[in-house]
Amino acid sequence: MIRAFLSYLMHSTNEHGVHSPFVFDMMTKCIYDKKPQNAYKTINGYKKALINDKTVLNITDFGAGSRIFKTNQRQVKAIAKHAGISQKRGQLLYRLCKCYNVKNALELGTSLGIGTSALALGSQHVTTLEGCPETARIAKQYFEQFKLSNIQLIQGDFEESINQLKDTFDLIYIDGNHQEVATLRYFEQLISLSHNDTLFIFDDIHWSKGMENAWQTIYNDKRVTVSIDTFQWGIVSLRKEQQKEHFVIRF
Ligand SMILES: C[S@@+](CC[C@H](N)C(=O)[O-])C[C@H]1O[C@@H](n2cnc3c(N)ncnc32)[C@H](O)[C@@H]1O
């Protein structure tokens, strides 16, 4: 992880080092956009409310497990702090939805729904998938409390839930089960739910050797044209009109 971060620092660039108009526009109009937005108050308020919630949950562990938690009894506030998306990334998720006029978003890994709240505020409809029944129950309570009514939460294992989906999605955020083989399998499944302009966002691409491998396989895939490494996230587009190019950008 430290070596990966040092390599990222050495190779990453800002918008001045990028010649692709598609990526330059994404950086200037979206990623680096610092204008305040009303929606940020809700995204930040949502996370804040969870961080004050001392309810204890019995977690059913799906995916790659946690490096932080040693037992399955967890407080909502601890999950929100350690597994929840940061405010900075939540706001970027919202901006990506707005910049690319996302109507239909998909999230793998609801957890308590912090990322979901950003997607719901930025798009017309969000489908979000979560394995743990207790976590899903609390997320649904918070969606109601924050009047986020454009969310469908499907509780179950990712692979089975994805198989039930029929729609295509404009933005797909993969934030759960950070394992090499599973990530690559989800990518294959999700490609069939995408269109030419779908944006894929993979979280924690440098989290482990397995995720490094998965990320390399994804950005080397012939179908992937644009791939952007922001260290925490890998953003991918399959737009056929783009030439194949890989970017490492500062965020
Ligand atoms: C890092 S958290 C998601 C954080 C959330 N997106 C946010 O923005 O706060 C990952 C979630 O994915 C769920 N998960 C992991 N593997 C899964 C699987 N195979 N099927 C269903 N859910 C899974 C976990 O239960 C966990 O709640």
Task: Characterise this structure.
This protein is α/β, with parallel strands linked by helices and 251 residues long. It has a single domain (2-31, 86-248), classed as Vaccinia Virus protein VP39 (Rossmann fold), CATH 3.40.50. The protein contains 10 helices and 10 strands. The chain has helices at 2-11, 21-31, 38-51, 76-82, 87-99, 114-122, 133-145, 158-164, 180-191, 209-220; strands spanning 56-58, 73-75, 104-108, 125-130, 151-155, 169-174, 194-203, 226-229, 233-237, 245-248. Helix 6 (114-122) links the parallel strand 3 and strand 4 (125-130). The structure holds S-adenosylmethionine. S-adenosylmethionine binds at residues 62-63, 83-85, 107, 109, 111, 114-115, 129-132, 135, 157-158, 175-177.
Based on the structure given, which CATH architecture is correct?
3-Layer(aba) Sandwich
Mean pLDDT: 94
Bound small-molecule species: S-adenosylmethionine
Number of domains: 1
Radius of gyration from CA coordinates? 17 Å
Helix content: 40-55%
Which oligomeric state applies? single chain
First-to-last CA distance? 17 Å
- CATH homologous superfamily classification: Vaccinia Virus protein VP39
* Tally of DSSP β-strands: 10
Write the element-wise H/E pattern from the N-terminal end onward: HHHEEHHEHEHEHEHEHEEE
Strand ordering within the main sheet: 5-4-3-6-7-9-8-10
